[in-house]
Amino acid sequence: MSRLNLLRANASLCRALLTHKKIAKRFFSALASETTNTPLQARSLSSLAGPVRDNNILSSPFGDIEEAKEHLTEYVFKSSEDYGSLPAITCGATGRTYTYAMCRTMIQRFSRAILSALKLKPGDTVGIILPNIPEYVVVIFGAMEAGLRVTCANPLYTPDELTRQFSNCNVNLIITIDMFMPKVEIMKKSLPSYKSTVLISDNGKSENDVFDLKSLLLTNHEVDMPKIDINSVALIPYSSGTTGLPKGVLLTHKNLVTNLKQFGHEVFRQYKERERNRSTILTVPPFFHIYGFNGILNYNLEIGKHIITIPRFTPEDYIKCLAEYRPKTLFVVPSLLTFLANHPNVTKDHLSSIQDVTIGAAPVSESVLEKFLLKCGKTRDQLTLQQGFGMSESSPVTLLTPYVFPASKATSAGQLVPGTECRVVSITTGENVGTHKTGELLCRGPQVMQGYLNNEKATKETIDEEGWLHTGDVAYYDEDHFFYIVDRTKELIKVKGNQVSPTELENLILEMPSVADAAVVGMPDHLAGELPKAFVVMKPGKELTEKNIYDWIAEKVVKYKRLDGGIAFVEVIPRNPGGKIMRNELKVLGGTLRKSMT
Fold first, then answer.
1. H or E element at residue 200
2. Domain residue ranges in the chain
3. Which of 54, 429, 458, 461 is spaced 20 to 30 Å from 267 by Cα?
4. 89-98, 446-455, 520-529, range with the lowest pLDDT
5. What is the mean pLDDT of residues 134-162?
């Protein structure tokens, strides 16, 4: 899991903020931090920065955070009685909706059914293969309340991709819908710990190892519920990290709840004005992604919002939701914001209710933000745009723009959330650097993962002995400690906010008998951000076409991992003396080939 940007002053006034500190201090995010009683209006430009320890180690300007005391389900639904009969989550495509009271009851019933009827035990693992549907809330929180670990997968993954993930984390129970049952039938033969499947279906029928969710919920199961250790693993998302194949990220209840508190701090939200009212949000980023789960679903359930989502993005369904539900808040990725800014069927009226937009998963350009504001017919003092930075390994948020901040920070990923430290380390010398100097971003805080599942080597490469998480992202910070992400040192390819491991694609290409060597890099694309491009070395006397390779990959991976950046045949893959692929050289070569073709 990367978020966003925000503005509260209009264009002319914002420019004044850069030079007139007396004017600026009225507009900056100065909600009192947990370690100061300084009033909101009194914070000056210089007070935006947090403390700096020796050797350029930065701390959050908003102080520390009280770490979690409750497990995740308990924390998210602690105020559910306050909202009772009010809607919690609605499917924008079908209109199916559950109230907060209904959600809480179903979660409790499902957690008991897991331990009683399905005979699983705390510490077992549930694999979820679902789109964004209201029942997602029931099954994921029910599993966690029963003390189980949960891993969520993209339902569009191929059986091979799903099997690889579920086998790695030893899945015992699969939860899915009718559409994906053929994949489950293929997968379960290769999962040694598999016991059963829970099917969310209209059929209402249980047989053999398949249990109907509705039937489980309608039965009263008597069982002693376990006491959940907040330091136990709750969620295992899969991430490529800084390099290599996707790895299971071990996130505890404490990691997830503490991070909710961190980016729910008052400096990032205006509780009195917006957060505690019954406003509606519209979201399509998938719940199987850490941004969609902890950054959107969990946060908005905890503060009592009405969440509108759709199982599959289509322009028609999304525009219908805008018109019918009139959301005040949108959670988007850059490609969706581009859609809203450019699609002719999205009108100013469709966006008239929008007050807040949060952008996550990847950076967004200033030009797209401007186009979106133009489509809305609003100035930046009329619409809140927030952006931030995070990754699966940090639950996910480490940086976020405050609710109010100066226009000069429009391209920033924000400031450190409470309880978080960071360093920017020179790529060449390894030393900590100061303001306006680029280097790899390292973060440390209570939201950082336990480590990678069954992969001590990768854990040590990512989290050093002092607890610093090496993000693999190149960044710098300014004098006010706003951070800017400018590049990546890691090999990860980002396609519309989705992670693509080049190693995974390379291994698949190398399975082809005619291929001697292969490398995959991300090539820039104005719509997707990046697209995977393969460079292939053929064995002597062998022949393959680009279509042969493309089709081979397309059969084995989800659509966004396909080689839509192209395929090039080369004589040799450039490698350093240690055998590591020199991907920057291939990116230059790929750009040269593209220019020569045009």
1. strand 196-200
2. 11-64+252-487, 94-229, 493-597
3. 54
4. 520-529
5. 97
Length of the chain: 598
Q: Helix 135-145 vs helix 100-116: angle between axes, to the nearest 10 degrees?
A: 50
**Top mean-pLDDT range of 33-37, 187-191, 471-475, 540-544:** 187-191
Dist CA 441 CA 419 (whole Å):
16
Which CATH superfamily groups domain 11-64+252-487? Answer: ANL, N-terminal domain (3.40.50.12780)
Q: Are 250 and 452 in contact (CB under 8 A)?
A: yes
Contact 285, 333 (CB under 8 A): yes
Which amino acid, residue 484? Y
Kindly tell me if the per-residue pLDDT of 451 is higher than 60: yes
DSSP E strands, 208-363: 210-212, 233-235, 238-239, 247-252, 280-283, 306-309, 329-332, 356-359
* Residue pLDDT, tens place only, 313-333: 999 999 999 999 999 999 998
Q: What are phi and psi of 464, to 5 degrees?
A: -80, 180
CATH code for the structural domain at 493-597 = 3.30.300.30
Three-state DSSP class for residue 562: coil
First CA to last CA distance, the chain: 35
Query: Does the pLDDT value for residue 395 go beyond 60?
Result: yes
pLDDT tens track for 413-425:
999 999 999 999 9
Indicate the pLDDT class of residue 428, thresholds 50, 70 and 90.
Answer: confident
Map residue 40 onto helix, strand or coil.
helix
Q: Give the pLDDT confidence of 540-576 residue by residue, as tens digits.
A: 999 899 999 999 999 999 999 999 999 999 999 988 7
Predicted local distance difference test score (pLDDT) of residue 381 = 80
Sign for the CA dihedral angle at 328, 3, 310, 496 comes to positive
Residue 1: pLDDT over 60: no
Which one, of 380, 464, 413, 156, lies nearest residue 289 by Cα? 156
Query: Which pTM does this prediction carry?
Result: 0.81
Give the CA dihedral 483, 485, 490, 495, nearest 10 degrees: 140
Q: CA–CA separation, 548 vs 540, rounded Å?
A: 17
Q: Which fold has domain 94-229?
A: Rossmann fold (3.40.50)
Question: In CATH terms, are 11-64+252-487 and 94-229 the same topology?
Answer: yes
Percent residues over pLDDT 70 in the chain: 87
- Cβ neighbours for 514, distance < 8 A, ≥ 6 positions apart: 538, 539, 542, 543, 544
Give the contacts of 80 (CB within 8 A, at least 6 positions apart): 88, 100, 101, 103, 104
Q: What angle do CA 284, 363, 384 make, to 5 degrees?
A: 70
- Could you give the maximum distance between any two Cα atoms of the chain, in Å? 75
Residue 134 bridge partners (DSSP): none
In whole angstroms, what is the distance from residue 538 CA to residue 277 CA? Answer: 62
